[in-house]
Each structure stands twice: as C-alpha cells, then as structure tokens.
C-alpha cells in the first residue's frame, strides 16, 4: 500500500504560455525535490517543467583556532637540520638547511609548532604555525608586487590563538598545511598561497625557500625530538 505525501507544497505557480487550444503552461516552484517527485508520481499528467530554488551557502571567511603546541626540531629527508642563519654567520636573518656536526649541534633550531582547527571544511592537511622557540619569530610565506611567494622569518607579538584568513596584520601568512607523506615525512604547504611548499636544496648551507612542486628540491621533512607543551 502506498502512503501519499500530505504536506507537499507548490510555493508558486507562474503562467508562462497559453496555446490557441486553451492549453496553458505553468512554471511551478516546489518547496523541495520530494514534492516535485510526489507531483510527478500522482499527477494526471507528468510535471515536465519545474524550477528548484536553492539557497546558496554564504562564503564564510575561514578562522583558525589554536588547539595545542609541541616543540620539535625539523630535518629534511637528507637529515639536514634547519638552523637560523645569524647564529652561524653575519648574513641577514633566514633559515638554512645544514648537516650538523658535533661542533655545531648547538645551532640547531627548536620550533614551537602550534596546531589549529579551521572553521571551514578542508582536507589539505593539519593547519600549523612554526615559530622559533623562545623568540617571537615565525616562518611566514609572503608575496609583494606580484612576485613569487617567499619564505621569511616574521616577528610577531601576541599569542596567535585565533587567525582569520585575510588578517590585516598578515598573520594568515604564518599558516601552513602539514600533511603526512608516507610513514615518516611531512610537507608544509602555504595556506595563503596554495601550491607553494617549504623546501630545501640537496646541498648544505642553502636557504630554506618556498617552491612549487614538483621540483628538484625536497619538500619532505621529519619532526624530531617532539615534546607537547602544556598550556
């Protein structure tokens, strides 16, 4: 036995054409797809024209909220460690990838990696910020004048508990999608500039830079000596 739908609603009916033989065409606005299917099932003649009006979701600006922080060191897949340039030389402030020896192990940079949860659905990886521990410096991916995005160390004041896309202070440039590749490696893709990854060169003492993949540089990193920081 078939149970009829009793709450079917035709929200509006618009006359769109009338033939000489008196046959009239209407444009029907249904409240939902089920109502459209119900009318086709029980109407004397099939409903051949309808307009389904859907409410489009608003474009919501993503907001990222901090969940936890862990300390770690970062090495590329060639076992080179990220170090701060001015710790070893008199160059401008940036990061290098270096195979450390016993004499230079103290220059290893320890990072505070904060993880975030996004208000918008995404499947690109875990949003994170990478700050140098015991400092106000963070890895940032920025762009100016239409040039390619570059990696730099940005000074930040404040806890960065919440970051909103399009932040007027440019704090959204600090966000990266950390994604596991295989069993041991992670990639770091800029949230603000999709397709641009933190990379290192094969040779020692080269800058850590943003590149699009594929590239002859490596975008694969391991997180060593991890320790969760209790808030």
TrEMBL record:
InterPro entries, per the entry: IL-1_fam (IPR000975), IL1/FGF (IPR008996)
Organism: Sinocyclocheilus grahami (Dianchi golden-line fish)
Annotated GO MF terms: cytokine activity; interleukin-1 receptor binding
Protein name stated in the entry: Interleukin-1
Compartment(s): Cytoplasm, Cytosol; Lysosome; Secreted, Extracellular exosome
Major place of residence: cytoplasm
A Pfam family reported for this protein in Swiss-Prot or TrEMBL: IL1
GO cellular component: cytosol; extracellular space; lysosome
Keyword line: Cytokine, Cytoplasm, Inflammatory response, Lysosome, Membrane, Mitogen, Pyrogen, Secreted, Transmembrane, Transmembrane helix
Any single GO BP term: positive regulation of gene expression
